[in-house]
Structures are given as C-alpha cells and as structure tokens.
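Quick check before the chapter quiz. The format below is the same one you will see on the exam, so make sure you can read both the input and the output lines.
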Amino acid sequence: MSRRPGHRYLGPREWINRPGAIPDRPGVAPAAYTWSRWHVVTAGTYSRAMGIDGPPPAGTPGRVRVRAVYPGSFDPFTAGHLDVVGRARTLFDEVVVLVAVNGSKQPGVDEEQRAAAVRASLPMGWTSVTVAPWRGLTAEYCLRHGAGVIVRGVRNTTDLQTECRLAAMNQSLGVPTVFLPAQPELAAMSSTAVRTLGKSLPRPG
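Here is the expected output.
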C-alpha cells in the first residue's frame, strides 16, 4: 500500500508506546490511554477516563496520523459494517477495510470479489477509506503496512467474548484493538442473517 506524500503513519509499536496522547499535556501518556497497559479499549474510554470530549479528531493539524484496519470476511457487506466504517473514519486518518479469508467460514465468492462488492458499497466521498483483500493474519498486515490499530464492531456479549480473545492475541503480536459497539437498530444484523434471508426470498419472474 502506498503512503500519502508528506505524511507519516504511526506503526503498531509507536502507537502502543507513544507519548503526548493528550494535546494539552505534551509528553504525557496517561495510563487510561496507554495501549501497552490495556489490551482493548472501546470508543469513549478516553473521554470518560480523562473527563474531556475525546482525542483530537482525524485531520487535526499537528496530530500524528493513524491508519486503522477493519478486518472481516464481509460475506456480504452489511449496513452494520458500513456504519462501523463510517464511525471509524471520524476517529482515524485512514481506514483499511481488510477483506480476509476466515478458515471457519465458507464464503460464496473469493476475497477479490468480496472486496469489489465492499468498494461498490462505500460512498464516493469517503476518500480516507480503502479496501484490500488479504490472506493471512490481520496483525501481519498491520505490521507490514504501518497500521497502528485494529477496529472491530461488537453487537452483543457473545461477540464481545469472542473479540476479546482475538484482541488479546493481536495485542501479543503488537497491535491493539478498538471496539465500536453496534448501533441499537443494527445490533441484530449479521452477514449470516442477510445471506440466509437472501436465499429464502422468492426470485422474481
């Protein structure tokens, strides 16, 4: 993946150990926002812990740029996935939707076709969002491409338990995870449900 001219992205280890996480406290890395001490954080942890509105938004002048990766099989890409991408792009300077191969799932089409479907689903104005097919560990992609954090959506406690195990593994490989809870109206939506519903609907003609 090419890097944007004139911009430097934080790598995973820099992101974990970076100082000066708060603009008005230069050189200070508060424990509540030090990734090496917290395997997982959710969006909002920063503001609740520090009593402020949150970290500087993506695009703030002087802010170190951060690339995030949102992995998944996306078979198919749903409104819930789109919502996570939309929220992630307001938190990070670049979001890579990583269309991955999951050995426990049997998608109907390969990752290249799924990646093309995701690209077609993204609004044209989301220029900070890219899509990449990938065979391999998500953490390996992050380390190779200078992505500092993994983004995952969680719909319920079952999701959270599974994602916590994956997040701990990725943390051990040097890449932290941020969870974005699903919007209430989208919490019941899943790729499996959408796929099953599509198969059960009568075909026109």
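If your answer matched, good. The helical segments are 12-17, 45-50, 79-91, 111-121, 138-145, 157-172, 191-200.
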